[in-house]
Amino acid sequence: MSAVEPPRMPLFAALPRRARCGHATLEFAVLGSSSSGNASVLRVTTRESRRQILLDAGLSPRATFGAMRALGFTPEDTAEVLFTHFDHDHAREGWARVASTTGLRLRCAASHRPAALARGYPSAWIETFDPRAGGFDLGPIRVEPCVNPHDEAGTVSFRLETDAGSVGFATDVGRVSDALVDLLRGVDLLAIESNYDRGMQLESARPKFLKDRIMGGRGHLSNEECIEAVRAIAFPDEPAQVVLIHLSRDCNHPDVVRGLWSRSLPALAPRVAFAHHALPTPIFRLRGGALEGANP
Ligand SMILES: [Zn+2]
Questions:
Q1: What is the largest CA-CA distance in the chain?
Q2: Domains of the chain listed by start with CATH number
Q3: Gap from CA of 5 to ligand 1 centroid (Å)
Q4: Cα(90) to centroid of ligand 1, in Å?
Q5: Per-block mean pLDDT, blocks of 10 residues, the chain (296 long)
Q6: Cβ proximity of 244 and 277 under 8 Å
């Protein structure tokens, strides 16, 4: 899409937002994100209930719990892990033991169940959903999934809709489909991968097969592809916050990404935060669909 071309109109009306209520709170933080490990936490608190989930479990349980405690989350309150897919950087073996001993549910697409079992995860604690059958509820969280091309098994992206606001979560997306744009359009907080700088990737010492895998439409999103996706998702309603995840440590740099955003999407650039490979982001809080601490 060129800079002068208007964004594509939605094929469908944006998914219905839940009525916002001022006493519900959504808290989201990325605990760590890179090709060496990915995990995020999301907690929703309403008058009636509270639900805390992890999005992917690609950090060790010890690192995950440490980062959660540092932010003020109670790891033991985690009800389940919602998996995008089962590559090693999204699903560490150590979570098999945590599930066996605590009953933590491991929720994934039905097509990913063999990969979850291959990771050693206990069958009794794996719960599956069919991403093509529509959404489902996890307590106060409405989950709407969408399948993306990524290697053989694909990944699942999520729209998490709550009374406090909505989060879009998309990582390891080989190519951005219209369905994914429509799913994420209108979210209040968008966490999306910005994996690599194309020039740095091409010049890297990585073997050709790996470069082809990453850039071939079944791997990851480049910085430019991420920006074009956000440009489409943000029309007409811009997210209050964008969190860029899964930056390559070898073939990307936040300074490169910042420069690109200020040239390509300057209106949104001040609302972009970066996940770090080993340090958690601050907690982003939504209430009534608004981001706490943001300028109105
Ligand atoms: Zn990954």
A1: 56
A2: 25-290 (3.60.15.10)
A3: 31
A4: 6
A5: 46 56 90 96 94 98 97 96 96 96 95 96 96 93 92 91 96 92 95 92 84 82 96 93 95 94 95 95 93 69
A6: no
